[in-house]
Amino acid sequence: MQDNLIFASKGISAYLYHAEEMGYRDEKLNKALIDILYSTLTNVNFDAERFINLAVEIGRVNIEAMRLLKKAHIEKYGEPEPTEVFTGIKKGKAIIVTGHSIKILEEVLKQSEGEGIDVYTHSELLPAHGYPGIKKYKNLAGNVGKAWYDQKKLFSEIPAVIVGSSNCVLIPKDEYKGRMFTCGVTGLPGVNHIAGYDFAPVIEMAKKMPELEEKEGKFLTTGFSFSAIEGVKDKIKYLVKEGKIRRFFVVGGCDAPLRKNKYYRKFVQLLPEDTIILTLACGKYRFNDLEFGDIEGIPRLIDIGQCNDTIVGIEIITLLAELLEVNDINELPVSFILMWMEQKAVAILWSLLALGIKGIYIGPIIPAWINKEILDILVERYQIRLIGEAEEDIGGILEGGNEMSRA
After folding, report:
1. Block mean pLDDT (10 aa), the chain, length 407
2. Fewer CB in 10 Å around end: N or C, the chain?
3. Crossing angle, helix 2-21 and helix 27-38, to 10 degrees?
4. Which residues make Cβ contacts (< 8 Å) with residue 191, sequence separation at least 6?
């Protein structure tokens, strides 16, 4: 449980770091994080039950950290709006920005504007295209690649300059090490580091690189903010009450390059056409290239953003509870199917548990800090479930009910 708190603290620190990049800071959150981290010293606390309570508390702290980062993003870049993002390549010189920092992406866009250089996002920066303050830049060309772990292959194949903006960067291959830069908290051996936000060296190198060859691509839709869902709340209420939307599935999380995670693509493909999929974080790349259609104008796949945008998902679930006049969130026709990889996912799990959400499915990777005793507690108190076969899991969920139709 000490490991759990340390991992969750690392995840929350990432959100607070990105908020502070834009000048947003909350001393109460910083103090809470310090107190919880200090409790992990073995000569301070040996009380296992207290660690469970602290884990729930760190979930609450994470909710407020995500709220702070959402506030920073919206006040600086505007409320995200549903946006189609090109996934091919245009002919021309290019910079790829990978990671989570929208602040760094904006600086690259601003400083390279008018220089004849296209800027592409990668992985967790796909949702940045939904912000009015980001998509206003004419040199924002699209998004390349998928989840964070494809970067070694992707960056070797595309002769662009790369900027790593957060913790998802990998040790580079020789093929692109010389044209990669890190900035902010990120650093890699043998890679140039940008101190502050002066990207002149990146731009100068991009000008010297060969032009990219044109490549066809499809469009991915992202940028579903709380306001976008709130704007159609009456229609959603009607469709649920009429039985035309049977259930909402929150499917996403932090992906890992394992064959087992093919489960998620199969899972969403097997979902009935009267269900809605809410997705976020890099886990969405397992299936966001599929066509799901809509239910009377409501998209069946709704991408609400990065992992920190879980707060938007929480707000949407709260809105559903109000619309459907449900007091207990667990009575909603909503199921959570989450994949696992890194520290921010740990903080998010405890945020969901702090809200009293039960019956969450996790896997196929079990967080390393979960031993049998901890798993028993999670199952007993929160009805945590380990994913199995997609068909069986879907059948079990749908048979469980919570449908809100007139019938």
Report:
1. 93 97 97 93 76 95 98 98 98 98 98 98 98 98 97 97 95 97 95 96 98 97 97 98 98 92 97 98 96 98 97 97 96 95 91 97 86 92 96 94 41
2. C
3. 160
4. 164, 172, 177, 180, 181, 182
